[in-house]
Amino acid sequence: MADPLPGHETYRNRLAIPYITPSGVVDVRFRSMNNHEDPKYMGVPGAKTTMFNAQIVLTAGSYVCVTEGELDTVVLSVKTGHPSVGIPGVNNWRPYYSKILDDFETVIVLADGDNAGLEFGKRLSRELHNVNLLQMPEGHDVNSIIVQEGKEWIDERIRKCLGQS
Question: Cα(105)–Cα(62) distance, rounded to whole angstroms?
Fold first, then answer.
């Protein structure tokens, strides 16, 4: 946002990520485009944290992918076509999300390649009966591994999680 709306000057030069539902935009989060800027993500004060891209569960088939963040969800969905939802930070998982994902045959958790990502994957594996954990290599997330290795790297591993060749 180079030219923010009045009251949103704090978010100047950040990527605006809308949380869109069938009823419209319910929230907007703002991501720094400089990976060294702190905080990396900012939200509108008072906004409730929710699952990103949650409406995909209404049209996804037998599986859904879960990533650790909005940008990873967007990149995975756009580059590979896999149905994906995002949890905006590992500490933002809510127990009721299990009810949203429980009916899928397979939930593929694409965990970041760090300790927090590993703990996130383990937590979801404990809470859901249908999880396949796909840990990104050390220091990577979905976005960075697709940039470095290409979408085929993710596609191949997701196919294996689904029991496909």
Answer: 5
